[in-house]
Amino acid sequence: MTCKTCELLQQRDAGTAPLWDCIHRALGWDVVHSFNTSLPGWLVIVARRHIEAIDELTDDESIELGRLIRQTSQALKETTGCEKTYVIQFAEHKEHSHVHFHIVPRMADQPEEFRSLGIFGYLGATEEERVGEEQMNELAVQIRDFLLQAD
User: How far apart are the first and last CA of the chain?
Assistant: First the structure.
């Protein structure tokens, strides 16, 4: 089976990924904006090598991941004004079994039905509902600048 996440990594390696899909590259991780969400700032931290479970992480990858989770959460607070962030990891989708972590902004005024597990109501959005590429790119620049200063 083909791993779509690995295909997206290859595009980043080749320099052909759009800005929103290549916000920040660390040694073991990439930070990208989710493509199929209606919530601006829904980020994903993606392992740069194909692994399917957290226990396969190296010590260095684990340490770097911890820093990136904190830094992307700080960046989202700064850029979106969110109250806090959710961190979610499954790697269960048949085309995306590759380890990745969703870092999701939770706004102060977010409707109750979209809090906690309800946050997934923002994923799988139709083309019309999705965050537009221009808005994703604007956020990407702001988040990239924040992460570069944090390094």
Answer: 36
What's the rounded mean pLDDT across residues 10-29? 97
Contacts of 1 (CB under 8 A, 6+ apart): 94, 95
Dihedral class, residue 81 (left if φ above 0, else alpha if ψ from -120 to 50, else beta): left
Pairing of strands 84-88, 29-33: unpaired
Average pLDDT, the chain: 96
CB neighbours of residue 118 within 10 Å: 12
What pLDDT does residue 1 have?
A: 57
Residue 66 corresponds to which tokens in the numbers above?
């911890």
User: 29: which 2 tokens?
Assistant: 């991780």
pLDDT, tens digit (0-9, with 9 covering 90-100), for 75-92: 999 999 999 999 999 988
Domains assigned to the chain: 4-108+131-150 (3.30.428.10)
Q: With pLDDT > 90 as the criterion, what percentage of the chain qualifies?
A: 93
Identify which of 8, 102, 100, 103 has the alpha carbon closest to the alpha carbon of residue 47: 100
- CA neighbor of 105 nearest in space, from 52, 54, 56, 37: 37
